[in-house]
Fold this protein.
Amino acid sequence: MFMAKKLFLFFVILGIVTLCSAQTHIHIEDASYKNVPLRIYAYKNLLTRSPQLITEKKVSENGEITFNIPLSEAQLLYIPIYSFKLIFYAEPNKEITLQLPNFSKLKEAFTELKSYSKREIPLFVKENNSLNQTITNYDKAYNAFLKANFHSIYNKGNAEKYDTKIQELKKLGNSPYFKTYATYKEAYVSYVAGLRNELLPTFFAGKSLQLHNTAYVSLLRKLAKEVATEFPRAPSYRRLYNNKKFNEHFLIYVLYLGKERRLISEKIVLQKLQLIAKQSPYKRNKQLAKSIIAKSKGNFKGKNAPKFSQKSSNGKTYSEYIFKSEKPTIVAFFDSPVSNEESISTLEDLQKKHKNVFNVVVFSCEKEQANIPKNWTQFVVPYYSYILTDYRLGRFPYYVLVEKNGKISTQTWQQYLISLEE
């Protein structure tokens, strides 16, 4: 009996060690990326698209890099470069070789667009048996089918006629993630046919929740927008949480879209989400509700200023600790091709007028600003620098106010400067 217990304990420990050591290996070989730092992110969820940093590493001198990341389930991941998100699917315990777009070509495209709204670019994965290849092949066949039959399905509402073809396409892959992906693509055919009311009980009620499934999110957003539009005029929708047959996950989408489009009052949305966050039997739904509540509170503000370690134009290396001082700090982002003389002059005059009651730290993109005052610390960073992403860069020039304790201020830099004038 004692020996049986020892053996059982041994296999439990072995299972835990094996699970913890399970790694997905992601390999990139491209000389155009040599010495470029790369990050891999996941989405906490595809509704709010809140980023979750998985790992970070610099590409070697010869352009090679391998990421070893623990994954417990298939996920949509992405690598942000300039204003692009290079997306791919990763599965547990797989070897993945990614083919990235040429780094110089990405820079040319960014310079031409000059926008920080992230555009998604699907990456090519060399392994033929990967989830990426399965979804790529499925999408190609599915899109060709939908293009050829869209008008017939839309005008006649006869989605059932094409069910055999849809089921045939689903046989292209066997992974649970792909099966779910294909199921919601199937649901879209019914959506096109106008079978909106049938979609929820047929495809969503009681189904497993795949929060990283792009097809799922796309369709739910379409349905949620329609329900959210009716929400204020239909009191019954406000009791949907008590309806056990209704998909709670879909209700979260309705609430979120309703808030984003100002169709539902923020007060009602937050009340419902707080209820779900406390009472939902589904862990993922709780997390999703909490993430929306946190986003509504503007969780960037009040947190520590994002970390960095950078050499300034005076030759010294500084880190995020530069912000912890006896004065608040205005962090200014300047774009070198654009004249920032007026912005610099105005900020300098205010600082002198108020006897230097605040510090100024400047991040200049690509090129040093020659007219920066000597008492300001200046860092030259490339456009692809993660500093720009971490500080949520908007249009140039862009400013962030950091309090004396090194935390992002809850008031804007404009409010701070106005308070000085008062």
Summary: The first strand starts at residue 24 and ends at 29.
